């Protein structure tokens, strides 16, 4: 793994890249977009596994306010998902000189990956969403509240601080408060999904705590396809719960992608 920091007007953006060992890379790099409480470290060994299996470079970064990136300047706005293509992601593209890429996002990062694919139709060669939310449903809000309760108990926030340092409480409040805000009541990805022009694979866990199977089905129906989503026998975090099967799905899907 090669770790580095990108410069942005709001502060440093931590990023990392993995390349296949002992062979040259092939195809466009895969850029990973993390979830609401995620960061580069919480992808664990998935980026390395993915690089080895696909032969592609894999790049991940911490959004401002998360992981080893600088704090977010203020309160995270309700438009944060739609803003990502013009935020840290744009900094990544510019400073790494990426002309093409595959976008892979987990959970809210999947929503951001959809926005990215629509914003860069000429550069995004393929889109993969993993456990993404395409609209707000009761299961989403209930799951967030249950996670919040566990994290505000004694010692709970320290688990977040391990990855986000003194930004941990900001990250938690940004997640909980945005999804339960009035602005998010009728939020959907429908308009962004309609802008996606590249092949798309929606992956979802059968037992996902934050979204029913209607989530990946909506993504599949409103994008170029394949028509059916891929359902894994796991919960919300396939890259931790069933990484081998997730990796195999990505490898098969990208087999004919530049």
From TrEMBL:
Residues 29-239 form the AB hydrolase-1 domain. Keywords: Hydrolase. It comes from the Bacteria. This is Alpha/beta hydrolase. GO terms for molecular function: hydrolase activity. InterPro entries: AB_hydrolase_1, AB_hydrolase_fold. The keyword Hydrolase applies. Transmembrane segments: none annotated. The lineage of its organism: Bacteria, Pseudomonadati, Pseudomonadota, Gammaproteobacteria, Oceanospirillales.
């Amino acid at each position: 793994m090669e770790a580095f920091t990108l410069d942005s007007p709001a502060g440093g953006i931590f990023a990392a890249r993995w390349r296949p060992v002992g062979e040259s890379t092939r195809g466009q790099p895969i850029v990973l977009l993390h979830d609401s409480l995620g960061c580069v470290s919480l992808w664990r060994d998935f980026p390395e596994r993915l690089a080895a299996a696909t032969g592609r470079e894999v790049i991940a970064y911490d959004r401002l306010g998360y992981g080893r990136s600088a704090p977010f300047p203020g309160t995270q706005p309700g438009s944060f998902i739609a803003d990502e293509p013009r935020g840290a992601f744009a900094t990544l593209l510019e400073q790494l000189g990426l002309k093409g890429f595959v976008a892979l996002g987990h959970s809210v990062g999947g929503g951001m990956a959809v926005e990215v694919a629509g914003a860069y139709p000429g550069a995004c060669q393929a889109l993969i969403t993993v456990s993404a939310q395409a609209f707000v449903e009761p299961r989403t809000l209930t799951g967030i509240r249950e996670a919040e309760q566990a994290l505000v108990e004694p010692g709970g926030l320290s688990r977040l601080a391990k990855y986000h340092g003194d930004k941990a409480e900001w990250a938690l409040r940004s997640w909980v408060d945005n999804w339960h805000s009035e602005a998010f009541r009728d939020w959907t990805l429908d308009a962004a999904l309609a802008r996606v022009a590249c092949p798309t694979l929606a992956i979802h866990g059968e037992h996902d705590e934050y979204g029913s199977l209607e989530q990946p089905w909506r993504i599949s129906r409103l994008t170029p396809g394949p028509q059916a989503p891929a359902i894994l026998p796991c919960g919300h975090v396939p890259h931790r719960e069933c990484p081998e099967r997730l990796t195999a799905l990505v490898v098969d899907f990208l087999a004919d992608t530049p």
